[in-house]
Amino acid sequence: MDSCLSLCMISWRVAPWLKADALARCMPLAHAAFWCLAGLLVLLLLGRALAGRKTRTFGRAYRIFFLLVVALSAAILAYQASWQLAGFARPEFVTFMKRYNRRPDNPAARIVRGKIRDARGEALAEMDPDHPGRRRYPHGPAFCHIVGYEHPFYGMSGLELAEQDFLVGITRDSDSERDQFRRNLLNRDEIRGNDLTLTLQAALQEEAAALMKGRKGAVVVIDPSTGALLVFYSAPGFDPNRMAPGLFDGGDPDARLLNRAARGLYPAGSAGKILVAAAALEKGISPVFDCPSGGYRPNLSTRAIRDHEYYEYRKQGREWPGHGRLNMRDALAKSSNVYFSRLGVQVGGARLRAAAERCGLTRYWVIHEGPAGSLASAAARFPALSDDDIGRTAQVSIGQGDMLVTPLHMAMIAGAIGRNGSAWKPRLVAGTPAQALDPFFSPACARAVAGMMRNAVLHGTGRGA
Length: 465
Hints:
By secondary structure, the chain is of the alpha+beta class.
């Protein structure tokens, strides 16, 4: 069986487009072909002995066939020896062996994959002591989208995939990794990978999971001084300890495989008003606008934009009197759509677009890049506005229209406001150097917007935060 596996793997390396399932089906054929060649060799030897004579033609055919069998046998033995000596350095072969070799002495089951830990050393992924070769995820669904899964049938995702080479001990980028690789070569009975430590904190992640129970959405907490992600939670999730076919058949109404924190695109809503406020302050304007009950109509071809109180009053059969005159601070506390649509139009579509580009709202962010893959957000969407696009500018200014963002993008903007406008590239793995980005806002602008946000939480619509 081992010889057959090695023969199949030679084909896999030469033709990587072959699927593992196809290899599994071809194994009996390869096994039969090997023994057919051996049988033919025996028949040729018997025929030669019975004939009692040699011919030049038979001798040449015999030598060619004999060399072919010897070369094939040598290739099988050489590949088998390479697996015995350093097979752990071939992740695709290890996966193949885990899936199709069910023998109790399967060497792939003896590979101890490295742990994935949180910032304080708590295990998020580790080997299951009750099932050799299998992974266990102590926190279940809480980290499923970012840690991912490693499964003999369903494959890998998340950090389990991106850091596959590191976790099985075949990377040699640092002294500790090279030492581990050498130990694995010398002690093949206990092959160990490297442990991976994240910036996430399990206690905070579990708290986010408890707060989001029964809801769809995401929670992102970022350290604004370094870009380290402390919480990266998406709901609903799945339990990587209990993988099921229903997750992958495309019929899951809850889309539990979707990482909403990184890949979910949503209208920014009122959270987008802080970008408009910052753009206005950078332009040097902070106007007072009349915000009547009738709302604001950017042009004759658009519907009036009204404050949310207008619709609440109408449901109650009452008439909304309007906010009257508002400055920017009070308008943010009241989350006035009328005020910010008018403010965005005065700032101008081109300037809003430039502010969005500066804050990364037209691009994606790479959260982590590993040896075998990367984790990245979806690209946020912000329309290419001009100062003549009054209707679209008014809609975008209240977080509606063609503007779509991920929770990660908005967390980075909030973090930059809290750090006097400075921004950092998001990072997920401890030890990854912090990388400063170009400032999102000027220090004075960031401090002014931070004061308005604080006022909205203390006295305005953000009191429930």
